[in-house]
């Protein structure tokens, strides 16, 4: 009985570990604005900071700041250039620890809405791109008709991000909603692993 309980515990532990591993996205870095050495403030050269990072769809920005002094307003390019929070793209963030998801490619603009702070340098332009991604191993296959089985996979490598294994073209990629397919295949993998563990338990 004790042996059965130990096996059961081991099976549960392995399953939980597998689920935790698979549930972690293969991409999506978190960048705290201004770090290291700076912050969301008027002293940090925020565009120097931003230009040192290769932002990818799926990454996130974290704004840590003194909420009694600053806020974060996402604005249009015009609002950014003129330092005007008058036409924000979203409600101003004021918690002092705000996270912004960078879900798609494109350029995002953030300013501090407090009078004079944007003009003093509290403005941030973030370019989100996946343009430098390359797919290798095997070499790109010729286009196949939609739904064709057995399409070869590969490894997608983007500068600044970890490699992403592509099961078949388009199943896992940055940003474009294809994650449904990969979630489904991960779920079935988890179920399969759990089933195998249970079978092993019964045999023991
Ligand atoms: Cu401010």
Automatic annotation (TrEMBL):
Keyword Transmembrane attached: yes
Pfam family, one: Cu_bind_like
One function term, GO molecular function aspect: metal ion binding
CC per GO annotation: plasma membrane
Transmembrane regions: 184-203
Residues annotated as domain Phytocyanin: 29-130
InterPro entries to which the protein is assigned, alphabetical: Cupredoxin, Phytocyanin-like, Phytocyanin_dom
Gene3D superfamilies per record: Cupredoxins - blue copper proteins
PROSITE patterns recorded: PHYTOCYANIN
Keywords recorded for this protein, A-Z: Glycoprotein, Membrane, Metal-binding, Signal, Transmembrane, Transmembrane helix
KW Membrane (keyword) present: yes
Signal peptide region: 1-28
Record protein name field: Phytocyanin domain-containing protein
